[in-house]
Specification:
14 helices; 2 domains; alpha/beta; 17 strands; Aspartate Aminotransferase, domain 1; 387 residues; four-stranded mixed β-sheet; binds pyridoxal-5'-phosphate; Aspartate Aminotransferase, domain 2
Length: 387
């Protein structure tokens, strides 16, 4: 009964009706191991008791106030986010694309307010993904997302990810800022070289450009630190967060330093639902859980284990599996047959859910609570489908 859904997606027949931790259950009772987490969203897995209880309790209170009024849970979450990051200001949105929209607007507003309205162009990276709104597809510039939607120039330029000379050459009198993912997701799990990021930061400082990191996918514990920039050692002016931040409840956040945030004054931006009590209540539980040092240590341990098991697998079955890349529990592996074919086999024959990524690779984005048993089963399944 899906004829009434706009045909943007092509889901398989299986219908999931419940979940528990790292597992999803179909309506016929079949159990699937979830190495997709709804694309890096269910960071605490499915039906985590802490989240279920927090949301149940919040559901008996105020669902919505609008930003005409103070939201206590929102203030708490913003305070914690600023305490734990470079940021001084937070804007709450409902998704990754919306968090990016806020950041992209803030980049332009900074220059506009400083008497340089001609500085409006924003440089994005090849292979990037920033969401599906008009501005975010423009920023990524990927033709498969812009085709039919961006008729002419939309104020964004693109350069190859990781190429500092190309970036230098692209900076001109109209350039306002740079947006990049410290770890590219859709593009094929590519971690930015810290030296490259340092050079990007230096270019931004030299030309007074605003540096924005999109950590919608790699952020919120997935990289092994709360945000990937903290491990990579380069601090942006703006950071977007979503996906894992809500653990499955829709929420996005745009974090900025004071230099940028102070320009987003009354009337410049807004959202009806952004920062609502339900979303920010869940966000608080997520942040308290994920930012705990013992939790992040677990993420790093499981990352090391998964990475070494994948590397061993690619040595055992080099005809099918190649280079392993990524950071934390955002790991990818190059595959030789068509990645869709492997993904379907993994799902239908092995009941393990994985995600595709660019460069004909598979992506592994398990709940951050994943354990060795699930990883062992994943590796066994990958080995079986290769035969
Ligand atoms: C998923 C994603 C987005 C878009 O988030 P939505 O919630 O789908 O709007 C933006 N940037 C990155 C890096 C993502 O992975």
């Amino acid at each position: 009964m899906r004829e009434s859904i706009m045909p943007c997606y092509a889901p398989p027949e299986v219908l999931f009706t419940s979940g528990d931790g790292c597992y999803l259950y179909a309506d016929n009772g079949d159990r699937y191991s979830d190495f997709s987490s709804g694309i890096a969203v269910n960071a605490l897995g499915h039906a985590h008791p802490k989240l279920v209880n927090a949301l149940r309790e919040a559901a008996g209170g105020i669902w919505h106030l609008s930003n005409m009024f103070r939201v206590d849970s929102g203030e708490q979450l913003a305070n914690k986010l600023t305490e734990q990051t470079f940021a001084d200001r937070v804007f709450f949105a409902n998704s990754g694309a919306e968090a990016n929209e806020c950041g992209l607007k803030a980049i332009r507003r900074y220059h506009y307010d400083n008497g340089r309205p001609e500085r409006y162009r924003i440089i994005g990276m090849s292979g990037s993904f920033h969401g599906r709104t008009i501005a975010t597809v423009g920023a990524s510039g990927n033709p498969s997302y812009t085709k039919g939607f961006i008729p002419t120039d939309y104020g964004f330029d693109q350069v190859p990810f990781g190429d500092i000379d190309a970036l230098k050459a692209m900076i001109g009198e109209h350039t306002a800022g740079i947006i990049l993912e410290p770890v590219q997701g859709e593009g094929g799990i590519k971690v930015a070289d810290p030296e490259y990021l340092k050079a990007v930061r230096a270019l931004c400082d030299e030309h007074d450009l605003v540096l924005m990191f999109d950590e919608v996918q790699c952020g919120f514990g997935r990289s092994g630190s709360l945000y990937a920039y903290q491990t990579l050692g380069v601090t942006p002016d703006i950071l977007s967060s979503a996906k894992g931040l809500g653990g499955g409840f829709p929420i996005g956040a745009c974090l900025t330093n004071e230099k940028i945030g102070k320009h987003m004054v009354i009337g410049t931006h807004g959202s009806t639902f952004g920062g609502n009590p339900l979303a920010t209540t869940v966000g608080n539980v997520m942040l308290d859980t994920v930012s705990d040092e013992a939790f992040l240590t677990h993420v790093r341990k499981m990352s090391d284990y998964l990475r070494s098991e994948l590397t061993e697998l690619s040595k055992r079955v080099p005809e099918v599996y190649g280079e392993v890349s990524g950071m934390g529990l955002m790991l990818g592996i190059k595959v030789t047959p068509e990645n869709t074919e492997l993904l379907v086999k993994m799902r239908d024959e092995q009941q393990v859910l994985v995600v595709k990524a660019g460069g004909n690779s598979l992506r592994f984005l398990p709940p951050l609570i994943v354990d060795k048993a699930e990883i062992d089963a994943l590796i066994k399944a990958l080995e079986s489908v290769a035969k």
